[in-house]
Design a protein that fits this description.
Blueprint (H helix, E strand, L loop, with lengths): L1 H16 L9 H6 L7 E7 L4 H15 L4 E6 L4 H11 L5 E3 L4 H6 L6 E6 L2 E7 L5 H12 L1
Parallel strand pairs: 1-2, 2-3
Antiparallel strand pairs: 1-4, 4-5
Helix pairs in contact: 3-6
């Protein structure tokens, strides 16, 4: 019983830290990511060690290449070279920010990876944590509903 209570407290407090649907991004984050008014962005946190990220990134790149939505990747690897190697290997064409100082990942505080945030006018519209089959189709459906 005690162990279950500790886990419940731990995970409930973790969710209080993570940015969630309806939360606002700080002006500093909006400026750093160069977010423009009235545009919907898919912000994707990923790392080279994340197997699910490697599967999803090419699908998210298709969304960007199709001009469905603006995409910004945020690589959270400790070594920028690891992130750059993955971007090159997967031939990603969308803008990628290398969060070597961990300021972005600490601000968003995702509950896992991959983590995809839909953002418009500085507000989080939706969040997807973890692997999703056919993430490109999911994003297209969600964006259609948002626009």
């Amino acid at each position: 019983m005690f162990k279950k209570t500790i886990y419940s407290l731990l995970f409930s407090s973790m969710s209080l830290l993570a940015l969630e649907t309806g939360d606002s991004l700080s002006q500093n984050i909006q400026n750093n990511l160069k977010l423009e008014a009235d545009k919907v962005y898919v912000i994707d946190f990923f790392a080279s060690w994340c197997k699910s990220c490697k599967k999803e990134l090419p699908l998210i790149a298709n969304i960007y290449n199709d001009k469905t939505v603006e995409v910004i990747g945020i690589n959270v690897d400790k070594n920028q070279e690891d992130g750059e190697r993955l971007v090159k290997e997967l031939e990603l064409t969308f803008p990628v920010v290398y969060d070597t100082d961990k300021s972005l990942v600490e601000s968003f505080d995702p509950l896992g990876f991959p983590a995809v945030y839909y953002v418009k006018n500085g507000k989080v519209l939706n969040v997807i944590f973890g692997a999703v089959e056919e993430i490109d189709k999911k994003i297209k459906e969600d964006i259609k509903a948002i626009k």
